Amino acid sequence: MTGPFRFTSPAAPDSATGVAADVYAQLITDFGVPGASTFAVLSPSTPLMTGFWALVRESLLAGQASRTNKELVATGVSLANNCHFCINAHTLLLYAGGDHVLAETIGRGDTPADPAHARLLQWGKAIGADAGPPPFPPEQAAEYIGTALTFHFINRIASALLSDNSLPSHEQKLRFLGTTAGRHLADTIKRELRPGDSLPLLEMSGPEPSWAAPGSPIAVAYGALREAALTGAGLLSEDDQAYVRKTVSDWDGVTPPPVTGDWLPGRDDRPGARLALLAALAPNDITGDDVTAWRTPQHSDHCLVHLVAYGAITAVERVEETL
Length: 323
Hints:
The protein is mainly alpha-helical.
């Protein structure tokens, strides 16, 4: 189910060594999708790859809250961000988990019949705006908030760096679920995972968020991903860093700004700031010209994924503030 990459050439998962190979091994056992492109696209930077995998595992896959319910929140976030790649992936995961009617309902763009499911989907769509009272118990809040912020991050990475050409049709998804790999995915979704098993893979640590218990797997994973993504700021001048952060802080956390607005600098003037801001606020609008204007021979795939991740995490932090 992996697809082509727009601007990078990650190494094949079966050629990975070290911590990247360890992440791919956990993906098979705990996620059920070997070499998933949302993780492979970050593999040029293992701190980003490990931080993202840890946050996905500890918030979406492990914990006490229903996997179906958290998939609904992730899907709602992806719908709000118009991330076709992630919407497609979550409807597949819902279907693989046995939620056939729910997956087909969302795939059609309809509202789930179950009011509880509808509230969770809407909360994911509206997080950062007036989402209303949280539709989950307080003791599970970190799992749901962690899931929502995880997918605000990866929606931007996927929209910027992955091609929609890799998305399977409904019929292709159904055929996949009938294969050995599809049955393995379905079995994996039903497994109960022990929290914290991804943490030994982390290559960074950082300040933990206030919405998760100190020292909890979700808090540690979020701090690691945030710290890894923020290192991308070093690819910009101090003036460009300040411009990116000021522009994102002025964003309401919900409404995508027009790409023709004054907030977006030109490719010739500030190509790095432009690319980071597009990643934050309009990742679907990143073009090859935007990447080419910034990228020079000394800018490797590692640099590109870090600059996009920096833009993405500034947007995630803005959404986090609205909570």
